[in-house]
């Protein structure tokens, strides 16, 4: 029997690699011009294009929210009638969810950071990555077409039978969301393939950053859940166009079936929004606590647990829809169950901060705000998972407040933490820390002024989505509206200080936060291809218990067609690299 002789190995001492500070050549100035940006396959530029797009949609959705809150200052009509009000809150919900919340962290921040944290030069399918962005833009154009050709007044859920028979351009709106789903699916496929196949040498699964675990779990949800939404919206379009009677009871259909289809996607979609935010918070808390993350595997596996259990809880949106008592009990139990892996994360984040050397920079301030607001959102979600409580609170402002504490108090604050954390890496410029922290405080105060009164309103019976209301709720609505103006002020200040940082901000070093994560071991902004040589990972991204002077990583370079490991680039502990 023939045998193959094992290759000989020798050990080389790893030398520390210091990235070039503020290089003249980086991804922002290597390829200039509009056409270069439109045709780029660089994940970093695609991430920035996503970031600019979601920022525009966040602005539009925010303006619509301010219009809604202004109309609700008084119990009677102010400046828009009931039909316009229905269209405005529909557009606010659809734009914020489908065009901001879902793509903001995975597609914008994730596209920029994922290859850098994996130690590779780009995602697995760069052209597919660019195609997914253009699919996102095409979906947005269909939505804009719907807005200017009759609008949509169904609410962002497009519930039947109303959406199958109402006026307005529902078909264009649903087609836009249908197209958008392909962008989400392609991004998930790209990220999963990249994590599996393009990790740097030495980067085993237990050396992945928790941000990568979160994006991996999110990709699973995107790939498995999004087709269900696509099929649902396609059936709704066929119902409107052909009258086939899937959801219309007059034609033998079942409108509750639409709810099952829709929430089977839309509750996992909540985790498409929030799980990537969990990954960002893990990075920020560990970096600014200067401490190894507590319970690495517990946090990593809890992301996968959330992705799995999240597919099983859609029925808690339908406790009042006439489902059986047994089904309601099962969905209630599963709703409580999905809170366990989320609680594990919060416990481990707080344990990481315990006795840490906490540095209250702006990203850490947003991470702490996230912990406070998201816990309120989580606790109120558990309350809504209780059958007896939900019957009373269903379709009231209590649900509005809960949803915004989870989505804006959780996901948006995590997005802001990540944006401020990676801003120096993206653009090589530092923003004004003092103004940024004051702005975070303004947003925190405005957010709680806006949504805390809505818990009280909801518990007292104020229905959501109502154009008018009785006088007893006016004080709560006035407080809520003033809070929304304060939020708007905070984001206006943020826009100007981030713009100022791009124009006149001081240059950022390669690692202004002193992080041990992979992306901070290259220059700011990164080179066009991220790494001059292939990095060889020696240690994990959270090894703050080891001195920075020992923090190292190997670099693989090619000589005569053979790979050798010569210098070091990122990971702590002086070590050796075995090579053939």
From TrEMBL:
NCBIfam families attached to this UniProt entry: CtaD_CoxA
Gene name of the record: ctaD
Protein name, as recorded: Cytochrome c oxidase subunit 1
Listed InterPro entries: Cyt_c_oxase-like_su1_dom (IPR023616), Cyt_c_oxase-like_su1_sf (IPR036927), Cyt_C_Oxase_1 (IPR000883), Cyt_c_Oxase_su1_BS (IPR023615), Cyt_c_oxidase_su1_bac (IPR014241)
Reactions catalysed, as given in the entry: 4 Fe(II)-[cytochrome c] + O2 + 8 H(+)(in) = 4 Fe(III)-[cytochrome c] + 2 H2O + 4 H(+)(out)
SUPFAM superfamilies: Cytochrome c oxidase subunit I-like
Membrane spanning residue stretches: 48-68, 88-116, 128-150, 170-192, 213-236, 256-281, 293-314, 326-344, 365-389, 401-423, 435-456, 476-499
Keyword Aminoacyl-tRNA synthetase carried by entry: no
Annotated membrane topology: Multi-pass membrane protein
Recorded metabolic or biological pathway in which this protein acts: Energy metabolism; oxidative phosphorylation
């Amino acid at each position: 029997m023939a045998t193959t002789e094992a290759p000989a190995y020798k050990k080389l001492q790893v030398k520390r690699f210091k990235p070039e500070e503020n290089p003249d050549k980086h991804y922002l100035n290597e390829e200039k011009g509009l056409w270069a940006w439109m045709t780029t396959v660089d994940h970093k530029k695609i991430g920035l294009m996503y970031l600019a797009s979601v920022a525009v949609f966040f602005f539009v959705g925010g303006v619509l929210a301010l219009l809604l809150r202004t109309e609700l200052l008084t119990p009677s009509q102010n400046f828009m009638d009931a039909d316009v009000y229905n269209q405005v809150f529909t557009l606010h919900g659809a734009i914020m969810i489908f065009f901001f919340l879902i793509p903001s962290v995975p597609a914008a921040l994730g596209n920029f950071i994922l290859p850098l944290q994996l130690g590779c030069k780009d995602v697995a399918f760069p052209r597919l990555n660019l195609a997914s962005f253009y699919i996102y833009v095409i979906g947005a154009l269909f939505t804009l077409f719907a807005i200017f050709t009759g609008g949509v007044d169904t609410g962002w859920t497009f519930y039947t039978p109303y959406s199958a028979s109402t006026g307005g351009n529902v078909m264009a709106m649903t087609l836009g969301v249908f197209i958008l789903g392909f962008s989400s699916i392609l991004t998930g496929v790209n990220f999963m393939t990249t994590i599996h196949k393009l990790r740097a040498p030495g980067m085993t699964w237990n050396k992945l950053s928790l941000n990568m675990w979160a994006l991996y779990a999110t990709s699973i949800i995107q790939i498995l859940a999004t087709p269900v939404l696509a099929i649902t919206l396609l059936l709704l379009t066929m119902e409107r166009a052909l009258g086939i009677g899937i959801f219309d009871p007059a034609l033998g259909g079942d409108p509750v079936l639409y709810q099952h289809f829709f929430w089977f996607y839309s509750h996992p979609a909540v985790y498409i929004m929030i799980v990537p935010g969990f990954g960002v918070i893990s990075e920020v808390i560990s970096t600014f606590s200067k401490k190894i993350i507590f319970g690495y595997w517990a946090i990593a596996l809890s992301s996968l647990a959330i992705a799995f259990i999240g597919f099983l809880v859609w029925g808690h949106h339908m406790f009042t829809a006439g489902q059986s008592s047994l089904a309601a009990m099962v969905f209630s139990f599963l709703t409580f169950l999905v809170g366990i892996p989320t609680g594990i994360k919060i416990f481990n984040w707080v344990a990481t901060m315990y006795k840490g050397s906490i540095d209250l920079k702006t990203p850490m301030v947003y991470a702490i705000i996230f912990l406070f607001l998201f816990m309120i959102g989580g606790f109120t979600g558990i309350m809504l998972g209780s059958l007896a409580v939900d019957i009373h609170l269903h379709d009231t402002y209590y649900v509005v407040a809960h949803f915004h504490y989870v989505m804006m108090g959780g996901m948006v604050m995590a997005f802001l933490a990540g944006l401020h954390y990676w801003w120096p890496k993206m653009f090589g410029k530092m923003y004004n820390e003092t103004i940024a922290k004051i702005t975070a405080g303004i947003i925190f105060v405005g957010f709680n002024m806006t949504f805390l009164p809505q818990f009280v309103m909801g518990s007292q019976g104020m229905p959501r989505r109502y154009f008018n209301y009785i006088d007893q709720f006016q004080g709560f609505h006035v407080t809520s509206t003033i809070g929304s103006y304060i939020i708007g002020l905070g984001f206006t200040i943020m826009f100007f200080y981030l713009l100022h940082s791009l124009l006149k901000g001081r240059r950022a070093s390669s690692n202004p936060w002193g992080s041990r994560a992979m992306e901070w071991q290259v220059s700011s902004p990164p080179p066009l291809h991220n790494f001059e040589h292939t990095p060889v990972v020696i240690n994990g991204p959270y090894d703050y218990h080891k001195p920075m002077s020992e923090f190292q990583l190997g670099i693989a370079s090619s000589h005569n067609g053979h790979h050798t490991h010569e210098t070091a680039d990122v990971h702590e502990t002086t070590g050796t690299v075995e090579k053939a």
